[in-house]
Amino acid sequence: MLGLGIIGWIIIGGLAGWIGSKIMKTDEQQGILLNIVVGVIGGLLGGFLLKLFGVDVAGGGLIFSFLTCLLGAVILLFLVKAVTGRRTVHHR
């Protein structure tokens, strides 16, 4: 994904973050900027995890980069939800 440049990271990251937020049902809480951040950090997290399992992430291409970002975004959102929990206040 390094060959895409900063614009590629923003586009792929934004798309992956948005789809990841739809999967994890956090889309209502996120704007476009947060979707981009989640997707880019998700890409780094997904790439790191795939390398741990011996997957060569360097020459994967555009679709593989997107799927790596999506995987990382979903994992990141899952972890954020697990740590923060559901902090809704119930009024009676």
Automatic annotation (TrEMBL):
It holds the Pfam family Transgly_assoc. It comes from the Bacteria. Keywords: Cell membrane, Membrane, Transmembrane, Transmembrane helix. It is a multi-pass membrane protein. Its main location: membrane. One of its GO terms (cellular component) is plasma membrane. The chain crosses the membrane at residues 6-24, 31-50, 62-83. It is found in: Cell membrane. Belongs to the UPF0410 family. This is GlsB/YeaQ/YmgE family stress response membrane protein.
